[in-house]
Amino acid sequence: MVGELSTGIPALDRRLDGGLYPGDILALVAPPATQSQALLYQVMNERPTLYVSTLRPEESVQRDFDKHGGIDVSYRIETTGNNLTMEGELIHELTGSRTYTGNSAVKDDPLDDLYDFVESIERSINLIVDPANPLERGDSRDAYNETLSFLGAKLAETDSLGILLCHTSESQPPFRDLTLIAADIVWEVDVVSISKDDIEYQLRVPKNRGGTIITEDLSLDISNRTVTIDDSRAI
């Protein structure tokens, strides 16, 4: 087994006694209108990454990486085929309906795609799913639970790290509880305050199975290229 895996945020690594454990599943829970993906980019710079996009095409994800300033470590972007589009996800949020036409149709099961991607992991990497919401709204609770179990086993086998970005909404996905049960560690990110010159983000760690318990709420400073913990706000 390799040692602890860095989060890319030194002050957070110190609070976690070195970082995250190989084989961990991390659930990053955040409203969609936050800079939560900056945390993903920070972790990506620590080791090779398989980035699975469930809503956006590869070109859109790559543009975000480029705008961020690029990723310094090798990565591969995969998408879950012709599944739920961003337009379709918006329709669901507004109506609660999964009845789509045209390009918004659910044509393939994204869980099958994710299962294949997980099965391809052969060495220690990050496996990022952005976001997990469409998977948490699938047709079969048992199938989603089975996929999470397979993911956990594969991560442990290869000393890898899994990160599931879980957007919050008024209508939470029905399988969100399974995600949080399977997760070894949960990060909750939210906006605390917004001013003309600053947005203050807060990070809470309500769950860290088998690891250091962090009881403090951490203030995050999220810039265009880096994420740091702003200890000055605690003074």
- Order the strands across the largest sheet as they lie in space: 3-2-4-5-1-6-7-8-9
**Beta-strand proportion:** 15-25%
Count the beta strands: 9
CATH class: Alpha Beta
Structural class assignment: alpha/beta
User: What is the ordering of alpha helices and beta strands?
Assistant: HEHEHEHHEHHEHEEEE
Low-confidence stretches: 83-87, 97-107
User: Roughly how many Å is the radius of gyration?
Assistant: 17 Å
User: CATH H-level name... which superfamily?
Assistant: P-loop containing nucleotide triphosphate hydrolases
CATH topology: Rossmann fold
Task: Please tell me the total number of domains.
Answer: 1
Cα distance, first to last residue? 39 Å
Question: What is the annotated CATH architecture?
Answer: 3-Layer(aba) Sandwich
Overall mean pLDDT score? 88
- Measured as a percent range, the helix fraction is 25-40%
Dominant shape: globular
Largest sheet: 9 strands, mixed
Number of helices, counting only DSSP H or I runs of 4 residues or more: 8
Describe the protein.
The structure is a single chain. The protein is an alpha/beta fold and 235 residues long. It has one domain: P-loop containing nucleotide triphosphate hydrolases (Rossmann fold, 3-Layer(aba) Sandwich), CATH 3.40.50. Helix content is 31%, strand content 24%. The chain is built from 8 helices and 9 strands. A 9-stranded mixed β-sheet has the order 3-2-4-5-1-6-7-8-9, sandwiched between helices. The protein is globular and about 45 Å long. About 7% of the residues have low confidence. Pfam families: DUF7125 (PF23442). This is RecA-superfamily ATPase implicated in signal transduction, inactivated.
